[in-house]
Predict the structure of DnaJ homolog subfamily C member 16.
Amino acid sequence: MSWIFKKVSLQIIFIAIYLIAGNLAELGNPYEILGVHRTASSQEIKQAYRQLVKEWHPDKSKSSSAQHRFIEITQAYELLSDPERRALYDRKGITENDYSNIPIKTYFTQNPFDDMFGHSGAHFNFQENDIMFFHKLSVNSKQYDKIIIPKSEKTPYVIFFYTDWCFPCLQSAPYYRKLVDNLEPLGIRFITVHSGHEPNLSRRLNVHTLPCLVLLLDGNVYVYKETISNIPKIIEFIKNKFPYKLISKLQEENLEDFLSGWKDNKVRGLILPSKQNLKLRYLVTAYSFRHRVSFGIAASDKIHSHYQVPQDMDTVLLFNENISYPMASISMKDIPMSTLHNIISSNQYLALPRLSSQKVLEALCPSEWNKPRKKLCVVLVTEESSIHDPHRQSFMRYAQNFPYNVERVRFAYIYHKKQASFINALTPGGDITEPLLRIIVLWRRDNSLIRYEWMPAKWELESHLNDTGTKLVETITKLLKSTETLSYETYVNDLFDEHAVGTIRRTIIRMSQFLESLYDNLGKEQILAGLSVLGTILFILGIGYVMVHLVEKEEEDIKKQKANANSGNNNNNSNTHQQELRLYELRSEKYNGLVRMLKPGCRTVLLILDMQSRQQLIPPFHRAVWPYRKNKTLHFAYMYIERGLTWYKELLQLSLFEERELNINPRNCVGTVLVLNGHRKYFCVFHAKHKENKVRVSRNIIKATEKDCESGSFIGFNSDGSDSESDEVLLQGNLLDGLPNWLDRLFEGSTQRYHINYWPEFPIK
């Protein structure tokens, strides 16, 4: 029984809403409510309405009657802003909707309380503004994507967004119902969407307020932002959103050019209206048949007289290749849409159409498995050239005079180059070396399976008068028999769509549609915000461009200064080149800067040499340290052992922490590289015969033997190599061969560090 109570509760809610709406609908004199004269213009009425709304809006007014007064003002404005309702009030004093004359349809044929109480009670007839009217037309997102959008290619759709507890939606129901009754007979379809149940669809279609009216054309969405009670504005809005130049405006000067444009494979439709204005029914018809028929409208008296049509009636003429006389016509005061569609559907192809797309092929040559109902297509292969125009005209006259089985035989022509893939599939064996001006008879057994037969001779200008035309009649008559079959069979791909829009044009159309939709959907606040963001971005880009320009200019100035400095130098090019790597000689005056006063983290790479080895050791040392030239924490220097022998001897003595005096041969020191860290007071040593895999003892003291003081280990470290190894003789040019690898280990931190307590004094000489 719970479902019964739920149903009754729902009906009671609807009754309450209807009674409230009915009470609010009782309106007094709308002119007195708005405080305007009966002769006031629409602009004066709008200004008065705006001022009263500001005063009586429930959010701004503290009066207890503000809400009732606000609704009364709104209803008065809606009545006076609608020309039809205002005229009805001025004539008869009727303040209610003029839709009350429409017979009321009840959605419940039986009183819902009869089933509960078993007797007949009071009957409530729900009016047009009942929410059930919206529910009957409601669709969901899946239906919208799968059904509505594909159908919108040929049929315009008007979508109404609503919710259950939306009082303005209930007020808009009579207007929407009138819109449905007036426009649905013209071919426009109406649906509704429950915004509460389909929030994603509402966001996709840019619905911001309820109720909201949306027009859907070929998948493109246009939001109507005016009041729904103004029916003429809605109709004008729909008219303006149809594709540009859907119906061309014609005069005597361009009429012949329009009718002669049938080479685009479209029939010409000429509309001769009784009035100057363009009716919505013709726009809807032209939109539905725009792929097959091009429409033009002419309101000239001379054109009416030329075609001898009545000027007090609407006339539609359809022309094929013969522009002097229409192939179909209709004249009525108000042409019914069904009659108009039937006439156009029956005459939407030329007398000799071109197979220009797969849709045209399927319409002219439908696939049929039933052999007794076999339908043949007789196709002439030509080229897109005026040279073949006489052949096509001759073939068209032959098709118009073909005597037999016209309903089962369809004549057409095809362009060879544009449909080369299709034609080549029909000439697999090479029997037809030249298909131009040849006739092929087709029977489509399936969407891709075709049986065909080529005529042996080419079609000449007067072939319909000689053996070729007679042979074609005999072949077609024979093939139409159920016992006869066509000679060849093959699979083909779909025809190339010759009317497809190119990429550039499609992009331009999409961009224009997007901009139009953006303009329609954005309000003043969104436009101002967007312009503000755009201005900020342009300002930032402008500042960035100026900064880049200044930097480039400064770099050019520096390059010019360097070029001027180089040109003023009298030295050779080799001398003007400034090396990136500078080598300092370690002397007493530079000792503090290179060793003692080094900044934290900085080190000096020092090469020890003598006067005789300078020419052989400086180049390999330069090559070894060249990759580190851009390291600002490194300094590169060299020292003559003759100048710094006492300093070097004392440095080694400090690292050994022993009192015995070292016996050092200066020649053995040549080729040694020291890396000095002045701040942390340690150094690392590279020598060709110095091995760092020594045995450590406590406090980092490494003992030396007297044996190897003169053999290359004079620095004070034990060598765990053999005697033969210590007795090796190295050439002076090979002393620095292992320096690059040692530098890699140095910067990895894997070399031995020798710490000292202080830096010894450098001798002054």
Remarks:
- The chain has 28 helices and 20 strands.
- The domain at 2-117 is CATH 1.10.287.110 (Helix Hairpins).
- The longest strand covers residues 376-382.
- The chain has a mean pLDDT of 79.
